[in-house]
Amino acid sequence: MSILDFADEEALGRVQSVDTATVIVRVDDVEALRALQVNRLVALQSSLAGHKLIGVIHKITRTAIEEAKVAEVERGEEAHPEVNLVRITLIGTLLDRDGTRANIFRRTLETVPEIDACCFALEGERLTRFMGVISEVTGGAQRLSLGAYTLDPNAEAYVNGNKLFQRHALVVGSTGSGKSWTTARLLEQVAELESANAIVFDMHGEYASMAGDGFVHLRVAGPGDIDAGKGLADGVLHLPYWLMSYEALVSMFVDRSDQNAPNQAMVMSRAIVEAKTGFLKAGGHTDVLANFTIDRPSPPCASPPLSRRPSPWRRGAAPRRVCQRRAYRHPSPPPVRQADAHGVP
């Protein structure tokens, strides 16, 4: 059964001209014309049974045609008839059935509308059903609601959850457009699924208030958490520094804006290389040493590289836990020597 069943009396107008993928529709009802908006979707009758042509409103015009003569001025408005035209760009075809599949949308045009074919507006529940066909949303657990469409608040927008999480996705928009709200809406529904696994890196704490059986909030461990012996059961996550690359470590402990940052990064580089090399030699890992780089992870049983010499982290930065609860702590921030014009102390 077609998801777009219209009666002729519901038509907003009829096709007046056709030019390749552009259709001009004449609208006689002024109130219907006022309700239309650019970029809204419409459906047009096709010359093929079981097909509906889908288009986007590109332009709306209302033109007065002067047909009256000077002697007919007393006719008033009747002397100035108006032609209301809507320019539509066709974008595809909706098939009621394609083989064993029902309601299939193709981004191709197998035919064009005939002159005087009816044109219908896609609104409300019909728009929801059509967009569900495009998103391949059939219901069930894979159907995730995003909210309502801006052009039609009565039409609800859905996304296919299976396809969303199998690919890369990007939520973009200007400030205040609803990016965080959209993400939170998705997270609420994902948390209710039985087999969903999602990790959110909430850098600004926007989603800290989200609660429920499907949510687990973790924060990065600090010195106080290490001393208190807190772990995952307490909502504290200890970062495995031995798995981090050199760039990741430098970004955490060195303030790039500091004029002494290059010297601190150099000291850090030497400390990491010496510590990792020493561990590999002590363990007899000569095969690993042959292809050793600064970014190669150290086994979790290795001594923390940064604990072997004063930490070059930026002034005021807090120490963190390293592998297997081994922690280092500097009694006071390292002294910063005055550098010359070239940044060399």
Write the layout of secondary structure elements.
Blueprint: E1 13-19, E2 22-26, H1 30-35, E3 41-45, E4 51-64, E5 82-98, E6 101-106, E7 118-121, H2 124-134, E8 143-148, E9 156-160, H3 161-164, H4 179-191, E10 219-220, H5 223-228, E11 236-237, H6 246-253, H7 261-282, H8 286-289
Parallel strand pairs: 10-11
Antiparallel strand pairs: 1-2, 1-7, 2-5, 3-4, 3-7, 4-5, 5-6, 8-9
Explain what the structure shows.
- With 345 residues, the chain is an alpha+beta fold.
- Among the domains are: 8-122, Beta Barrel (Elongation Factor Tu (Ef-tu), domain 3), CATH 2.40.30; 241-325, no CATH class.
- It is built from 8 helices and 11 strands.
- It has helices spanning 30-35, 124-134, 161-164, 179-191, 223-228, 246-253, 261-282, 286-289, and strands at 13-19, 22-26, 41-45, 51-64, 82-98, 101-106, 118-121, 143-148, 156-160, 219-220, 236-237.
- The strands form 3 sheets. Strands 1-2-5-4-3-7 form a 6-stranded antiparallel beta barrel. The protein has a two-stranded antiparallel sheet with strand order 8-9.
- A hairpin with a 2-residue loop joins β5 (82-98) and β6 (101-106).
- The longest helix has 22 residues, at 261-282.
- The chain is elongated and about 90 Å long.
- The model is unreliable at 300-345 (pLDDT under 50).
